[in-house]
């Protein structure tokens, strides 16, 4: 197969509201305070209460820490240490107290996330998550019991919100079954999070649509400076006639606003 780049366009996007849920992989600890999604001003003091309760019959040592939030190219959450300077981390000005507490059976413990937004915080969004986890001491054997992660998404009030994105490295390869596999990386080049969906269209030499595939990002958001790997399988179980084909890739917001498009031609 031969391929060549044809055209490209980039369009700025607009505001979108995000809904978030905490992740609780076990039931030994329950935290009331699912997510902090707020608009804040420079100099504003943040106070957010979270209450942890146990559902086991032994005392639990519960730990609470705040980390900056980002993700890798596969959408997996990545923690940023509070002392690491990341332009979109909220962990640099937030802390949780207490960091360690012993919670008795049937009792609850208040954890407070607090901090002051810097006057020079800048534009866009700031991101973090609070990790609250417990361990159970059973006869000097300490085991992992549960953890809850509470996302923190802050919008800087009155700041310039930029939602842009870029498709990079669009590549077409041949699949094991003879299909055409389109792969590219999409990067959030703005300063704010958004949810986006990708799509690819395969056209023949006369511009007729032969196949099209789209993928949703689900309920996860793309954070500033980060990217996702996107893979689309086109012309699966199709016997394509020899010739020149065009693959058009696009990424759009949920409201239909196109963030970026790119094309590549393929000789079959």
Count of domain modules = 2
Give the overall shape.
elongated
**What helical percentage do the residues reach?**
under 10%
The total count of strands amounts to 18
Order of helices and strands: EEEEEEEEEEEEEEEEEE
Percent of residues in β-strands: over 45%
In angstroms, what is the radius of gyration? Answer: 23 Å
CATH architecture of the largest domain: Sandwich
At CATH level 3, the topology of the largest domain is Immunoglobulin-like
Structural class: mainly beta
Set out the fold topology.
Blueprint: E1 3-10, E2 29-32, E3 36-40, E4 45-54, E5 60-71, E6 77-80, E7 94-97, E8 100-103, E9 108-116, E10 125-138, E11 141-156, E12 165-174, E13 180-188, E14 196-203, E15 209-216, E16 227-234, E17 244-253, E18 258-267
Parallel strand pairs: 3-11
Antiparallel strand pairs: 1-18, 2-4, 4-9, 5-6, 5-8, 5-10, 7-9, 10-11, 12-13, 13-16, 14-15, 14-17, 17-18
């Amino acid at each position: 197969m031969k391929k060549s780049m044809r055209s490209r366009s980039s369009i700025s996007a607009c505001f979108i509201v995000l809904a978030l849920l905490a992740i609780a992989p076990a039931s030994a600890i329950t935290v009331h305070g699912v997510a902090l999604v707020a608009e804040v001003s420079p100099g504003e003091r943040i106070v957010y209460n979270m209450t942890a309760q146990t559902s086991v019959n032994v005392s639990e040592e519960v730990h609470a820490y705040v980390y900056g939030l980002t993700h890798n190219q596969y959408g997996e959450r990545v923690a940023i240490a509070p002392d690491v300077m990341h332009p979109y981390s909220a962990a640099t000005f937030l802390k949780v107290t207490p960091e360690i507490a012993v919670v008795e059976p049937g009792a609850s413990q208040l954890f407070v996330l607090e901090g002051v937004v810097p006057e020079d915080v800048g534009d866009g969004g700031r991101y973090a998550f609070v990790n609250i986890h417990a361990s159970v001491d059973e006869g000097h054997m300490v085991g992992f019991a549960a953890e809850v992660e509470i996302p923190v998404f802050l919008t800087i009030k009155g700041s310039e919100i930029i939602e842009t994105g870029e498709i990079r490295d669009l590549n077409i390869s041949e699949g094991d079954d003879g299909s055409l596999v389109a792969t590219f990386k999409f990067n959030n080049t703005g300063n704010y999070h958004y949810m986006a969906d990708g799509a690819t269209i395969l056209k023949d030499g006369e511009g007729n649509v032969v196949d099209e595939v789209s993928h949703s990002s689900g309920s996860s958001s793309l954070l500033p400076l980060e990217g996702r790997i996107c893979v689309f399988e086109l012309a699966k179980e199709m016997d394509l006639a020899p010739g020149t084909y065009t693959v058009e890739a696009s990424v759009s917001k949920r409201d239909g606003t196109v963030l970026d498009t790119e094309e590549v031609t393929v000789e079959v």
